[in-house]
């Protein structure tokens, strides 16, 4: 039976595929009326099959309960929304490259389906319903396993004819002789502040700091930020370096896109009180803006629901692209 809260036009069934979870929600107009989260397997081989089977299973269950008019999928990688395919992506989802996800979802679930880049959908959600609301131009970064980016200019999301415009902010070069990134470049922002980078910096730092409480924890960003909150010297130095690298990347993006505001989301932002003021100070000192110091760096407000709202907006307003 269809959900009585849905209108005759139906609602949008939105999926957001992350590194460890699939988030899904029913978007009716401007309201998220139902949300669910499912865990994914961690092994690369199981991951791609797990993505498809979980989406279809969750979709079939929700379609039986709600009046759904269309389906949208937010997923990382360079995505061609016209064909519904991932054109390129790093690591665990590589087996999905050139798989017609949109066509498969539409066939299995019996609704038209849109597939789009996750950072682009996150930014669109924050632009229409979150921290970017009220601005015409935003840069949005998601901080976690990698660094996702997207840009809104004059109220339209950058995409371009090859679907790459605005989403490679995590792969701007911050350090020309820095570590190699998963994309193949050297010294990318992601290679310096992503999960793997922070874990590596913890391990390197522990070789010369016998007193750090990080010797007794896992070497993950979550434990790093927790140690910094306890004023651990090594953790504080890594977080300080993280803030400078992030600030440097944001300055370059401000110079490239001239936004009104920079919105930061993703898992690391749970600890933004440890680094956001330092990032803002770096941006104020180094970004060339008129007037100087104009661009505010602010936390995202929608959290896990941002990309779900973005998917619905992309379906409702297909002309919101540039």
What does this entry show, briefly?
The protein is an alpha/beta fold. It contains 9 helices and 12 strands. GO terms for molecular function: kinase activity.
How would you sum up this structure, described in words?
By secondary structure, the protein is α/β, with parallel strands linked by helices. It has 2 domains: 11-122 and 305-316, Nucleotidyltransferase, domain 5, CATH 3.30.420.40; 135-300, 2-Layer Sandwich (Nucleotidyltransferase, domain 5), CATH 3.30.420.40. It is 35% helix and 21% strand. The protein contains 9 helices and 12 strands. The protein has helices spanning 44-63, 101-109, 118-129, 189-193, 195-206, 221-229, 233-257, 276-286, 306-316, and strands spanning 11-17, 21-28, 31-39, 68-75, 78-80, 85-88, 113-117, 138-143, 147-153, 156-157, 261-265, 296-299. The strands form 3 sheets. Strands 3-2-1-4-7 form a 5-stranded mixed β-sheet, with helices on both faces. It has a 5-stranded mixed β-sheet with strand order 10-9-8-11-12, sandwiched between helices. Helix 3 packs across helix 9, helix 6 (221-229) crosses helix 7 (233-257) and helix 7 (233-257) packs across helix 8. The longest helix is centred in the last third of the chain and has 25 residues, at 233-257. It is globular, with a radius of gyration of 20 Å. 44% of the residues are buried. Residues 1-8 have low confidence and may be disordered. It comes from Dictyobacter alpinus. This is Glucokinase.
């Amino acid at each position: 039976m269809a959900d009585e809260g849905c209108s005759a036009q139906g609602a949008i069934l939105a999926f957001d595929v992350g590194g460890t979870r699939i988030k899904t929600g029913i978007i009716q107009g401007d309201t998220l009326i139902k949300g669910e989260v499912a865990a994914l397997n961690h092994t690369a081989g199981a991951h791609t099959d797990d993505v498809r089977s979980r989406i279809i299973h969750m979709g079939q269950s929700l379609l039986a309960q709600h009046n759904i008019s269309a389906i949208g999928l937010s997923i990382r990688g360079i995505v061609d929304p016209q064909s519904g395919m991932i054109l390129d992506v790093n690591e665990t989802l590589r087996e999905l490259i050139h798989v017609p996800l949109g066509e498969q979802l539409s066939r299995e679930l019996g609704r038209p389906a849109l597939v789009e880049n996750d950072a682009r959908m996150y930014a669109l959600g924050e632009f229409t319903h979150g921290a970017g609301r009220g601005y015409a131009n935003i840069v949005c970064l998601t901080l976690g396993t990698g660094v996702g980016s997207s840009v809104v200019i004059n109220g339209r999301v950058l995409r371009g004819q090859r679907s790459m415009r605005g989403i490679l902010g995590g792969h701007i070069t911050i350090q020309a002789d820095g570590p190699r990134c998963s994309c193949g470049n050297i010294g990318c922002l992601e290679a310096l502040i992503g999960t793997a980078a922070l874990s590596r910096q913890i391990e390197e730092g522990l070789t010369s700091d016998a007193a750090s409480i990080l010797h007794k924890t896992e070497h993950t960003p979550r434990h790093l930020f927790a140690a910094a909150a306890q004023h651990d010297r090594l953790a504080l130095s890594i977080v300080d370096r993280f803030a400078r690298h992030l600030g440097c990347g944001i300055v370059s993006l401000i110079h490239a896109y001239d936004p009104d505001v920079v919105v930061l989301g993703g898992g690391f932002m749970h600890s933004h009180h440890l680094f956001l003021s330092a990032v803002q100070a770096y941006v104020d000192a180094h970004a060339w803006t008129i007037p100087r110091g104009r661009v505010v760096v602010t936390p995202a407000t929608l959290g896990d629901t941002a990309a779900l709202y973005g998917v619905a907006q992309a379906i409702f307003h297909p002309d919101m692209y540039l």
